[in-house]
Amino acid sequence: MSQLNREQLEECTKLLRNSVLLSSCTDEQLRKIASKMSRQYYEKGHFLMREGDRQTRLYVIADGEVVRQKLVGGKYHDVNTYMGGMTVGSLHILKQDPCYANSRCVSDVVAYELKHEDLDKALRSDPEFAHNVAHRKYTNSLRTPLFEQRPYKTPFLAVSIAASIESFYRAALNSVLNQQLTGVKMGALFPNMHIQVPTRIMYINGFKGLRQYFDSTSTFPDYYEDHPGVFRLSLAVAPGVLMTPISSILEASNAGHSNPEPMSRRWARGLVPRCAREVIFGIGLNQLSDYCEERVPTVIAGSAVRNAMGSLAAGVICGYLSHVVHNMSVLKLMAPHKSYSTLWEDYVKKSDTRLPQNIPTSIKPLVRYGMAFFAPVGFHIRTGQIVGSFIILNGTIKALHGLKVEWNSAPQ
């Protein structure tokens, strides 16, 4: 028999529709769950749950405000706020997992409470209800925001092998792209590989290692409290900025046939646009590849195929977004005596030969700039280069990581 009167039962059922855990359930199923819930009153300052305690109850806030607070660096920081209509504790109640953070009432609160035992009985007695809950929980787990993607541990050896293989692919396409962009015939398809291979190994390990380091270190907790979105964005951007000098050495290795400057000076040419390119590459290799892989349709079950499709999608996005800054970086590297403004004008003029003949003269300048931005010379090569790099790197790392796990779990 329900502990709620008719009006409260309808209110609770309506509020449950907003629950992430139960949003795939029918109205009848929600009403059945609501009938097992009780209406509770909590005073300001009361803790609905404490960080680390087992989650035994789910709360649906009817009125008032609840704040979640996480212990970081010895201090509690506000993570987010729950108000009327929101659910607290839905992610951990199924298995009574430890609470992620404190949940404290910052005003008097009216909430509907569901015990784990009652939810468990409902799941066991109604297979259709259990299926709807499981489906929603699974699909919700595949919707991690871009800058909240968590890395898995990548062994140094696996990353190094992947980077060694990928360095030859990248070097070849770089030579082809530089030739198409500048008109200067390439000196070699694989130039200075004695420099490129070890530098590329250091470069890719830097991206992967910095991501894991930042993820495992609670640095600058005060900044996280005030601006969590900006904080996460900064940690995603940082590897690209820090790896720019190493990337510059790689680029300079490909440009010796056009730029006769010594390596000690050549590497710094085009540094600013190259930094922007590295930021895009780093986010693509780390967070965006995982983000896209997570969203591959569930009908595709093979982990290798899902990984490749995620890398493909991320590579297309990053390759396309980075083509302008990449090209400006290359042009400055190849012609260091020219200013960026002169290089930009030369870059835009390359679109002239590809303009349709029947375009009115009055709009030709606009179309030229549009072509330079959205369909520049060599953008298909650049996009293909990044797609291939992501697939080779992420695929090889994941395959070698899987072999290591199987080896360690094999009976001795």
UniProtKB/TrEMBL annotation:
UniProt xrefs under SUPFAM superfamilies: cAMP-binding domain-like
GO molecular function terms noted in the UniProt entry: DNA-binding transcription factor activity
A GO CC term assigned to this protein in UniProt: cytosol
Transmembrane segments: none
InterPro entries per the UniProt record, alphabetical: cNMP-bd_dom (IPR000595), cNMP-bd_dom_sf (IPR018490), Env_Response_Regulators (IPR050397), RmlC-like_jellyroll (IPR014710)
Domain Cyclic nucleotide-binding: from-to ranges: 21-123
UniProt GO BP: cell communication; signaling
Gene3D superfamilies according to UniProt: Jelly Rolls
CDD domains: CAP_ED (cd00038)
PROSITE patterns documented for this protein: CNMP_BINDING_3
Highest taxon, organism lineage: Eukaryota
Name by which UniProt lists this protein: Cyclic nucleotide-binding domain-containing protein
